[in-house]
Design goal:
This protein is mainly alpha-helical and about 230 residues long. About 80% of the residues lie in helices and about 0% in strands. Its main location: membrane. It is found in: Peroxisome membrane.
């Protein structure tokens, strides 16, 4: 590992989201390990389960106050059009509900609040999460469409200097990759949220949850990795 990679790793792990994506990787890798070895090696399976639970609870503790980031997101990037601004309000409102009630879910699971509240808090949190993700996904698809149109218009220009044209195209394509990563993460997290709202054999299967969690974690890892 060269010095540049080490420096980027330090910067990545200094971010709240960087730590979250790393611990999320631990959480869902251990979930898959538990499922894989449960029948063959119960002792290892139990250790993996404990790692999964500890990772999940630590992520919830680390996200304390995270619901306030929705206000900041709306203030800093409300959207370039009325439609995108409206979608941003809905998406961030859902995310704020998710993170706010996630606090109570964490407190009920560690026994500070009545453990019987956990199921209700989980449902409300997951519902807000799903609501937000749907509008984040729609917003990203609209932005991707606008990016493709801008790229076509830019490519058709003949009088624009080559250097500026190349740089503009590079920015559009870089933004497209980031938005595709966001869509992948949000769709994956939507599967996880639906498993809480309306349990079903597909979304609640360990492999579905494990793969969805890792897709979300690694897409987020890519988006937060220092350029």
């Amino acid at each position: 590992m060269n010095n540049d990679t080490v420096d980027k790793l330090v910067i990545f792990l200094a971010k709240r989201d960087g730590i979250d994506k790393l611990v999320k990787t631990f959480q869902y890798v251990s979930k898959l390990v538990h499922w894989h070895v449960e029948a063959k090696n119960p002792e290892i399976a139990q250790r993996a389960k404990q790692w999964e639970v500890a990772s999940g609870l630590s992520r919830k503790a680390f996200r304390t106050g995270r619901f306030l980031t929705g206000f900041n997101a709306l203030r800093r990037s409300p959207g370039s059009t009325p439609t995108l601004r409206f979608l941003a309000v809905l998406a961030n409102a859902g995310e704020m509900v998710y993170f706010f009630f996630d606090h109570f879910l964490w407190l009920s699971r560690i026994g500070t609040l009545n453990p019987n509240l956990a199921r209700k808090m989980s449902f409300i949190s997951a519902f807000g999460e799903s609501f937000g993700y749907i509008f984040f996904i729609i917003s990203d698809f609209i932005a991707l469409k606008e990016g493709l149109e801008a790229e076509r218009e830019l490519a058709a220009l003949e009088d624009k200097s080559t250097d500026k044209k190349i740089e503009s195209l590079r920015k559009i394509r870089s933004d497209r990759v980031m938005r595709l990563m966001a869509v992948a993460a949000n769709v994956a997290d939507l599967f996880i949220a639906v498993a809480d709202i309306e349990p079903n054999p597909f979304c609640n299967h360990t492999v579905t949850l494990g793969i969805s969690g890792l897709v979300s974690a690694w897409a987020g890892w890519y988006r937060n990795w220092p350029s």
